[in-house]
Amino acid sequence: MRALAGVDVDFGRGELTAIMGPSGSGKSTLMHCMAGLDRSDAGSVVVDGLEVSGMRERQLTRLRRDRLGFVFQAFNLVPTLTALENITLPLDIARRPVDRAHLDAVVQAVGLADRLDHKPTELSGGQQQRVACARALVSRPAVVFADEPTGNLDSTSSGEVLGFLRRSVDDLGQSVVMVTHDPTAASYAHRVLFLADGRLVGEVTDPTPDSVLAALTALRPAPAPAGAVG
Amino acid sequence: MLRVALRGIRAHLVRFLLSLLAVALGVAFVAGTFSLRTMMSSTFSGIVDAAAPADAYLRPPGGGAFTAEGGTGSTGTVPRALAAEVAEVDGVAHAIPEVQGAIVLVGADGTAVQSTQAPSMAFPYVTEDPAIEVVEGRGPSAPDEVALETATLASSGFAIGDATQVVVGGQVTDVEIVGRVDMGGPMAGATIVLVEPETGYALFAPDGGVGDIAVYAQDGTTAEQLVDRLGALTSADVEAVTGQELRDENKAAIDEMLGFVTTFLLVFAAIALFVGAFIISNTFAMSVRQRMREFALLRAVGASPAQVFTSILVQAAAVGLIGSALGVAGGLGLVVGLKAVLGAVGMDLAGSIPVDAATVVVSLVVGTVVSVLAAAVPARRAALVPPVEAMRDEVTVPERSIRVRAVAGLVLTGLGAAGVAAATLNSGPDTMDAALGAGAAAVLLGVLMLAPGMARGVLGVLAWPFVRAIRPVGRLARGNVVRNPRRTASTAGALMIGMALVGAVSVIAVSAQQSVAGVVESQTNADLVLRSATFDIPKGAITDVAALSEVGRSDVFAAAALPVTLDGDDAAGTPYVAGVADDLFDRTIEAETVDGDLASLADGEAVVQESAAEEYGWAVGDTLVVTGPRGPQDLTVGAVFSTNVLGAAVVVRTEVLDGLVPPEQQLVDTLMVSAADGVAVADLKNAVAEAVSPYVVVSVLTQEEFVSQLADQVNQVLVILYALLGLSVVIAVLGIVNTLALSVIERTREIGLLRAVGLGRLQLAGTVVIESVLTAVFGTVVGLVVGVSLAATLPTVYADDGLSELVIPWGSLGAMLALAVVVGVLAALWPATRAARMRVLDAVSYE
């Protein structure tokens, strides 16, 4: 049983790339391998010019700390720290000085300037995800991995978070890789990759919700109920 | 549901093993305490039975009770000659006049044969006495022959036929060991020497008065018949009792003595169980929280709240029962170990470890009930989870407000502090001891309840250096310990209690040392202090020392415990009455005269200690009736004085004491010696040490040595307390390990997130270590503050009893704090390793 086989893909800098596919298609595994959270048995993963596959735990930690940003579906924030402390956490861990101007720009972009002293429990789900995005971006990582970042949000909050991720690519020049099962979310990307049974099976550039849905439908022999994907 | 509950235990084995350990520890102390008490009680009962095996006794009215010191406190005697009349009574097989006295036996190594605090006694060997059985050799039949009890012979290092020396009646005598005897039971380390009867009676009953007459019945005569027939020989000074009555009295007296020890041990067992309950309830609270979804799922598929509640209680009962069983085994193991240790130092206890049903049942019930009660609160919470929670990702459990508890704690602390303050302000009367004790207990309990409320503030301060120095680990650790103040406070509870005790005791001990040292230096003018290991300096040593040319002056402090009654009053106490030289107060001891004139001592009047005067209501001019073996005497109180050098309540001139008690029966516990003019202290010491060396047991100390010997005694008390602290540290470490391990499991997601954003393994482990250290230091700081402040009130309360100076041992307190840091680091090792080994992917991926 292998989760991924023969996947050969490049993610461009300054792009928002979405990965889609049904449950068990290997999209999460792909992202975990790229992010150094999981190991591939064979093949190689190169991030920002560095070979990730052979790295030791210590090197992986440094990689995640210095070159990667993460946004998860939930549990993004440390409950004992304020929003601001959560945002600067990667810098604190790396003991790097905070670039005030960049921090302000990021905070401004996510629209949380007045909520920085609040604990995560005092923020709404959408606000928490925006704090998580700001945290992922504040250290200027080579790439941000977002794993179902809007999976727990209503459509308005989803729109805010996705709009912010897209702007971070367009305005701040970041690179973002996002795993999602939501065609609307995928439509915010520059490019959408489709995985099925551990293989790369399709690609759509400059997607719209309709073109994504059409591509998904084409992957399946018979249309499945909307809730069955994930 | 039962199957679900038991499967749950198997699935979360590590978690339950920790609770199991907590229960086992708490119960081990309870079981150990009970069986230790039973064992001690049965040992002493054995001694009592062995010491009073006869069918009936003739004794002074109400007297003759078992005294550990060897009968010196006896107040009346029975004429020895009465034994001959008793022997003529119908049905009497033997009538044996019994008497005993202090003796020093010089062992094979040249030192006195003596184990710990056990007495060293001599008895006349009466051939027909059925209580004494010669098992080897023969009984002593000449003044220079002795027989030794089996255990005594073993610890002396001699064999039968060896020659040695004894110090008895104040003289050193050469003797030959001619036999080994058994006294019918273990003697708990007492040194027992049998001497030739006429020598013994001459030494210990010079006036012909013996302690009692043991009467053995012929076959067919009951003890009651014997007592009836002996009635003719009784008088106002002699009564007849059955052996059983005497043994019961003695046992009651011993149980009373042991009662204190038992209470002391039980208090510690209760603390252990109390802290164990903390750990158990912590464990269940956390494990329930983690399994909230499981319970919600059970509810969703149709389980009633009662079923969920019951399933958790079943788990708790299983843990409690197994833990208690382990605890009982552990407790008995503890007693076996203790018995071995005591045996090694010469304290021979009864053979078997008592496994009585009561101990086992009580321990099992206590452990199980505490476990079930501790689990009941979280179980109730789990039972009330709405089933829809199962659908949610994050199940939140509302934390109960800690306000109610904080208010109760505040009230209790306030009341306790008021009690302590009242005791401080009205120092003196005995009722204040109770106020002080209850107040101190209330303050400790109140602070334990307040601890969750204080945790945030105190931990904020304690964590400050970490937050500043180690970014961002310090801040993360602080966040984790203040996140759930109730849990942190419970975890720190064991250390809090232990440290409060140690803080208080070390302050008291150091203050007492300092006070004693101050007293000895300022209130005595003597160059040397002579003391005896048997608490009685042989008379020969006293005369030998006085005869030395280097000695300018020697003061004998002879004493006897005698009933003293205020004239016209019948409430009698038996304080120590000391006989001293007329000019003692001018020369050797500087005492403060509270009232009257100390010179009245020379006129044959009594001078009394201020503390005793207050206790018994004596004043200058009162007449005291003092009753000694030689009869009662009326003494006028001539003065009230205050000094901490003399322990005796009543002081009279030597001649007066001699008129009350024959000199042979007086105890001389201290001899103070001053050098003659022009003699250096070092020369004096050499001369005196040489003079007393034949008497083996006498130690010669300069003032400084005397002070440091007193300090050593205080240190021995401290060692026991540190051993008990050791126990509370063990429990504390386990509690912290328990809490940390569970909270690491609970924070799996958060840890995954931190690792994902770049927190290194060492940094993560560091966070857990700092959390642990903060928890331990929190408990220690709060405990020490409580203990030290409570103890700081004592010098005000007990100034009259010699505790006059307050010294705070900053060094020891610092050491305790350092110990807390070590405890924190040790406790964190395993949980921190576990956290660091956690796979990031497992932590961040959601099913």
UniProtKB/TrEMBL annotation, chain B:
Main location per the UniProt record: membrane
GO cellular component, one term: plasma membrane
Alphabetized Pfam families for the sequence: FtsX
Intracellular or extracellular location(s): Cell membrane
Gene Ontology molecular function: transmembrane transporter activity
Keyword field: Cell membrane, Membrane, Transmembrane, Transmembrane helix
Alphabetical list of InterPro entries matching this protein: ABC3_permease_C, Macrolide_Exporter_MacB
ABC3 transporter permease C-terminal domain mapped to chain residues: 267-383, 724-838
Membrane-related topology note: Multi-pass membrane protein
Family that this chain belongs to: Belongs to the ABC-4 integral membrane protein family.
This protein's name: ABC transporter permease
